[in-house]
Amino acid sequence: MSLVTHRSYTGYPMVADAEVAPGMQFLYGSGEAAALDHQAYNTLVDAVRRRLASEKADPKAMSDRTSAVLTPDATLDQPETLPCGDRPRAVVFDVDETLLLNLGFEYDDATHPGAPYDEAHWLQWEQAGVDRVAAVPGAIAAVNELRTMGVTVVFNTNRSAANAAFTEAALDHAGLGPAKHGETLWLKGDLGSGSGKDSRRQAIAARYCVVAMGGDQLGDFSDLFTGTPQQRRAAVSSPAIRGMWGRFWFVLPNPVYGTALKGGLDDVFPADKRWTPAAGDK
Amino acid sequence: MSLVTHRSYTGYPMVADAEVAPGMQFLYGSGEAAALDHQAYNTLVDAVRRRLASEKADPKAMSDRTSAVLTPDATLDQPETLPCGDRPRAVVFDVDETLLLNLGFEYDDATHPGAPYDEAHWLQWEQAGVDRVAAVPGAIAAVNELRTMGVTVVFNTNRSAANAAFTEAALDHAGLGPAKHGETLWLKGDLGSGSGKDSRRQAIAARYCVVAMGGDQLGDFSDLFTGTPQQRRAAVSSPAIRGMWGRFWFVLPNPVYGTALKGGLDDVFPADKRWTPAAGDK
């Protein structure tokens, strides 16, 4: 970690009675977010259970079923999915703010208002946070139920490959393991990938029939979701894609960080929907 | 509207290039929130379709099925649900940030940073905003599919009874109507209720078998969710309640306002999960 990084952080002294940002109140402190979490995990497990039951009832049709992973040449207009064949069934999950809540790291962020994101602190946290993460509500039960059904749980995260052993330990400590790097744990840098996850998804899909995926960022489902906030929003709702949500792709809420937190007034509020109250009293 | 209210608002001049708060970027501008919306609506419609199919396959069992509405003497530890009998099927939805996005009102909020919530402005908005709301992604298709299945769509909202005609018009304009006050639209003040919704839910459940409910606040499901943030969070995840989410109760994300946005550091970050980076360089 460079001295510059350290200096820039210490410019933001710890505030022990800091106000908690609304996004953190929501994600880490609210019943509403916990309800969204349980909803995502209940519906994911129910969908996988129904699929396995229908495959058991009609084994010949099993090899015709498709994966939740898009083909390498899929587009958002033509989101073709990979064939499954008779590969063993798996569910692919992102890790951070999908299965794990990074409470310690976010506490540090909350108590240093204004401090920018610091990659070196994050890498330190991947090591130090092993026992200061918590499972997302509903995640432990879901992972256990999937494994009981014979479904392999695979983790595809942008945590660093250099810290693989710490992430394996964090998942174990939270009650979500086992995770084994190169088998059921895929990290940033694996396969020469950057933060894009498609190449890792293809490698996972070569071994498994991926019956569902879970994540808090659109990139946890496909790297194709790019562009402006309104373009990403339109793609999610397009006729070709909208049927995936809650059936093959399961979203966890995260208003604290990530690709969702972009945009100025023109990106967020359509011109024809603006309003200000009448100037005088009513 | 009092002069005081007007004065307090004009103390916060409009800022045309205001930064958009992260919660608003998430809810009104992100693909991730749209994906959560579609997920909630897809899974709600799928659950209702499966239930109706199983009732059709076994009509004798239909009267044994229960409602998504708790009994008047239910507790969170013993959340008994009402019997359905042969009442017509309905789904009960909250309105604001469940079916409708209040883009105009929130634009005004975004461009007046620091201004407190102003009830008089909100009441003005209920009238003026009829054509400046938008349907939540997935809501129109869901409402249409439910009606096609023969399920009545009922609205239970804390908009004011005095503005009933404007809310009926707003729902129509957004493509979600019809809504008729006293029949399929229930408002704050109906039945002498305050903002609690249980008395209205009981009245709805006396006429209908409520097969699912949708909302963005825990109070859209039961008035029993009270207490501190951690108490509410624990209740949502309790063994008696956690199975409701995504099966009978369907949650839409809202990190912009409401009961989820409470709590200081002690409410949001458990004492044993806190962390700060090492003081020196790594």
TrEMBL record, chains A, B:
Please give the Gene3D superfamilies that the UniProt record associates with this protein. HAD superfamily/HAD-like (3.40.50.1000)
| Organism, as annotated | Sphingomonas echinoides
Q: What is this protein called?
A: HAD family acid phosphatase
- Which Pfam families does the record associate with it? Acid_phosphat_B
What are the alphabetically sorted keywords of the record? Signal
Source species, domain of life:
Bacteria
Positions the record marks as coiled coil are none
Instruction: Establish whether keyword Lyase is in the entry.
Output: no
InterPro entries under this entry?
Acid_phosphat_B-like (IPR005519), HAD-like_sf (IPR036412), HAD_sf (IPR023214), Lipo_e_P4 (IPR006423)
Keyword Signal belongs to the record: yes
